[in-house]
Amino acid sequence: MAKQKKQPRPKAMTPKGFRDYFGAEVTQRSEMLRAIGAVYHRYGFEALETAGVETVEALGKFLPDVDRPNEGVFAWQEDESDWLALRYDLTAPLARVYAQHRNDLPTPYRRYAMGPVWRNEKPGPGRYRQFYQCDADTVGSASMAADAEICAMLSDTLEAVGIARGDYVVRVNNRKVLNGVMEVAGVLDPSDPEAKAHERGIVLRAIDKLDRLGVAGVRALLGAGRKDESGDFTDGAGLSDEQADIVIGFIEARGDTGAATVARLHELVQGSDIGVQGVNELETIAELLSAGGYGPDRIVIDPSVVRGLGYYTGPVYEAELTFEIFDEKGRKRQFGSVAGGGRYDDLVKRFTGQEVPATGISIGVDRLLAALREKGRIESRDVGPVVVTVMDRDRMADYQAMVAELRNAGIRAEVYLGNPKNFGNQLKYADRRRSPIAIIEGGDEKAAGIVQIKDLILGAQIAENATLEEWKERPSQIEAPRNQLVATVRAMLDRQS
Amino acid sequence: MAKQKKQPRPKAMTPKGFRDYFGAEVTQRSEMLRAIGAVYHRYGFEALETAGVETVEALGKFLPDVDRPNEGVFAWQEDESDWLALRYDLTAPLARVYAQHRNDLPTPYRRYAMGPVWRNEKPGPGRYRQFYQCDADTVGSASMAADAEICAMLSDTLEAVGIARGDYVVRVNNRKVLNGVMEVAGVLDPSDPEAKAHERGIVLRAIDKLDRLGVAGVRALLGAGRKDESGDFTDGAGLSDEQADIVIGFIEARGDTGAATVARLHELVQGSDIGVQGVNELETIAELLSAGGYGPDRIVIDPSVVRGLGYYTGPVYEAELTFEIFDEKGRKRQFGSVAGGGRYDDLVKRFTGQEVPATGISIGVDRLLAALREKGRIESRDVGPVVVTVMDRDRMADYQAMVAELRNAGIRAEVYLGNPKNFGNQLKYADRRRSPIAIIEGGDEKAAGIVQIKDLILGAQIAENATLEEWKERPSQIEAPRNQLVATVRAMLDRQS
Asked: Is B253 among the domain residues?
């Protein structure tokens, strides 16, 4: 008889680009999503949760920056004809839902959605193939009031999760204004919109590099081109100085108030219908925000925002954290963008043939959590449970009674469930759990009707810093009558916090 | 030139077996998960969130009741060698995580996890291919205290989400006791454990039908077999009357208290080592629960529980709701099981070769939500926002200011963002949104410094029931000074609730 072949053991590993989240990483994200959801709800938005799986047909063309279908998504064949795929964002499912249920949904439809999305991309440091998105969109309203509302809500949301006013700014720009500037500068002809697309691409990328290259660098890229420090040459858009002046004027148009910025933009887009329309839209948004009390300390009209300008059709918004952090190389830098969005007016057209206007934002929840941890606003680990140690294996029922009393009083607590033989292991366990308190009840204590209550946080502090005298003066372990267990633990927890 | 082929429009449909969740369906589930998580946390359990995607290798053999690999899961090939799959439960990922991170995790490791799982099965009414699971497991403890704790936590959890004491019961049984009974009845030989597996299968299925067939029906299946009303004959296990008596004695062993049940079981398993061990385990659990204050009004030792007995290796638990509901055919029936679990002692063996004991439960969140809705404990839809109507399109900034005031006061509110031309459409919209209140400020009101505040809930009641006199006496629309907007709305909301 052939010997049965032994299967090799499977590897216990997450797939490449996926990760596990433990303890506070999970609960803090839940709390953040809950806080965000509460603001969205207050603004009248309704929750929507779709499945992780959609038909490839319904998802359609995938990531905006990828042309080949199936590129960037996890997909598999369901049967001979149907392909299924994991959603790569929350906007494509919204389009499908709105087209599918439009007769039952209110119009306009304000909806929010939170959950994981999947990208079949090469993973990198800090780049995962599953991550959370948290979106809010208003479908079916062409009114600038919808855009203004999204910006105000974004501002309220950032403050609700713990970003102080002054530590963030919501910047607003408009695709149409940029198109107007392009038209005035002679690189966009409304009667032949495909011409000079290459030049416009260079202009857009040049503007996006303003932070890094400064005005002179951008000007070089708008003109003949630019050689960087390494000697590499980047082709320019070939604009004349006069043409470049118009673009530079645009990105420098930001004034002290929205009204001042809008006034300058009005001058710049003279002669372009689309440009005038875009500036009027920005003006309306600025007025509505001002009426709602959202001043430039929170939301600004900022023509230098270009991210997403290629994708959106009208207003675009971006939320940036303005405080400085140290990057991995120890250099100071601004934390940067944590949310972005804009208006896109063809949400469901591919399903229904109808143009339905929509506008919305997506918040990068994990980046926002990272920011709060950087600022020390949230602890990256939480406090562990009170641990009831097991001195006498046969009296497990006594320990169970203690832990039940503590839990019933709302105190996080557990009884040690490992092998109780080695008491040192129990204290090591409590340490690994970051337990604030350990309860000890041996035979002598039981006979005397008392329990030992050990302050593990004070104990650790004393062990690190105290002199022998201090050690004696500040005992980290106290005795309490058994019937005072809950009250004594609660008092100790209050003192610790 | 060939005419470009027109692509047909994609269908806006969820894939077969998947569905969308709207509004309160989403937020009520979030609230329930939050409430459950709070109890788990209080018990010292730590959150764990794994990705939806695992390697097929790590998932291993799939659903316990399915032998062919890939059956029952959504899987796809990542590259030449690796297959990935969507997780089908939360236990397989726990096994992978514990094997992967065991050096960094505390032992015992109490963890909870909540999230969607995917099953590639034929969908049916109420059976979806993505659904939520909500699990808690203790890994690395062989102590019955771990099992008792899980049962107590399950009881606390049900009460925390709104199931009143008396409306549920947690039943506990033990696989080893059943094995002992099988041994005593002569259908299990510990020295040849594979023999008579067929008979034992029939016995197990017969016990599971006790509710439906009664003792006589079960007895027939234990013996020669049973003909049902339709005339179909089901083969029996071929037990003698004496053998059948032992099995029947087992399923009828439940006494008034855990101690009484355990005493009877002790008699039944005399002579079987495994049986005695199982009864001792049940006895320990009963004692620990009693010490924690969990009496038979919440948790009972019940030998008639067999679900999962084929899968688990020691104690098993099941939570059942005991109140009656009407099924789809209008018949009264008990709501039934909403959670189940047990002990399984080979969690990570396939990864590490080591046996690691584990015990845990899984709560069916969607069933629990359905139960609360049946009992009227939660509304299936929530109240909509206050709607600020738009009487004058040019004064959007005024309406924006009102809605900002309301939101800043914590009141859910929105301004109407559709085309404001037809005022009737605005009230229809408010109705569809289940808005409690509409705010109206036309030119006359603006000039007089007032707003109209319309009680839509009272209005609907009056429209349905009131006589003309009552209508006049109880105006559903009141005037308020503009600067009393928030206070007046708040008072009206308070009156409504």
From this structure: no
A vs B: CB pairs below 8 A: 302
Please give the residue of chain A at the shortest CA–CA distance from B20: A50
Predicted ipTM of the assembly: 0.90
Tell me which residues of chain B, numbers 224 to 253, contact chain A at a CB-CB cutoff of 8 Å: none
Task: Examine residue A1 and state whether it is found in any structural domain, yes or no.
Answer: no
- How confident is residue B474, by pLDDT bands cut at 50, 70 and 90? low
What integer is the mean pLDDT of B284-306? 92
Give residues 401 to 420 of A whose Cβ lies within 8 Å of B.
401, 403-404, 407-408, 410-415, 417-418
Q: Are residues A408 and A491 in the same domain?
A: yes
| Total number of domains in chain B | 1
- Supply B465's token pair: 């029931």
- Identity (one letter) of the amino acid at B279? V
Which chain A residue shows the shortest CA-CA distance from B404? Answer: A292
Separation in Å, CA of B282 to nearest CA in chain A: 14
Please list every residue in chain B whose beta carbon sits closer than 8 Å to the beta carbon of residue A23: 46-48
Same domain, residue pair A479 and A398: yes
A421 lies in the same domain as A396: yes
- CA–CA separation, A246 vs A242, rounded Å? 7
Amino acid letter for position A18: F
Domain boundary among A382, A405, A435: A382
* A residues 75-114 closer than 8 Å to B (CB): 75-76, 78, 82, 84, 86, 95-97, 99-101, 106-108, 110
Does residue A394 sit in the same domain as residue A356?
Answer: no
Burial state string for B72-102 with b = 16 or more CB within 10 A and e = fewer than 16? bbbbbebeeeebbbbbbbbbbbbbbbbbbeb
Same domain, A369 and A353: yes
- Joined together, the tokens standing for residue B12 give 């806006």
Compute the average pLDDT of residues B56-71.
60
Q: Confirm whether B291 is domain-assigned.
A: no
Q: Give the gap in angstroms from C-alpha B148 to the nearest C-alpha of chain A.
A: 9
SS3 B364: coil
Is there a single domain that holds both residue A81 and residue A34? yes
Among B172-176, B299-303, B343-347, B429-433, whose mean pLDDT is lowest? B343-347
On whether both A349 and A448 belong to a single domain, the answer is no
The DSSP output letter for B304 is: T
Which residue in the block uniquely carries the two structure tokens 């990542």? B78
Question: B208 in contact with A at a CB cutoff of 8 Å?
Answer: no
Which DSSP helix (H) or strand (E) runs through A363? strand A358-363
Q: Does residue B269 have a pLDDT over 70?
A: yes
Residue B265 lies in a domain: no
Residue B359 CA: distances (Å) to CA of B31, B48, B95, B154: 26, 16, 12, 13
Any idea which of A78-87, A281-290, A360-369, B146-155 has the lowest mean pLDDT? A78-87
Chain A residue at shortest CA distance from B395: A288
Check which CATH number belongs to the domain holding A365 and give it.
Answer: 3.30.930.10
pLDDT tier at A1 (50, 70, 90 boundaries)?
A: very low
B383 touching A (Cβ < 8 Å): no
Given an 8 Å threshold on Cβ–Cβ distance, is A52 in contact with B52?
Answer: yes
> Do A385 and B44 count as a contact with CB atoms less than 8 A apart?
yes
Are A376 and A390 part of one and the same domain? no
Q: Tell me if A15 and B403 make a contact (CB, 8 A cut-off).
A: no
- Separation of alpha carbons A187 and A195, rounded Å: 8
* Boundary of a domain, candidates A382, A407, A438: A382
Q: Is the CB of B100 less than 8 angstroms away from the CB of A30?
A: no
- Structural domain for B436, as ranges: 386-496
The CATH number for A430's domain is: 3.40.50.800
Instruction: Answer whether A447's CB lies under 8 Å from B136's CB.
Output: no
Distance CA(A277)–CA(A181), nearest Å, equals 12
Task: Mutation target for B interface from A20, A100, A359, A416: give the one with most B CBs within 10 A.
Answer: A20
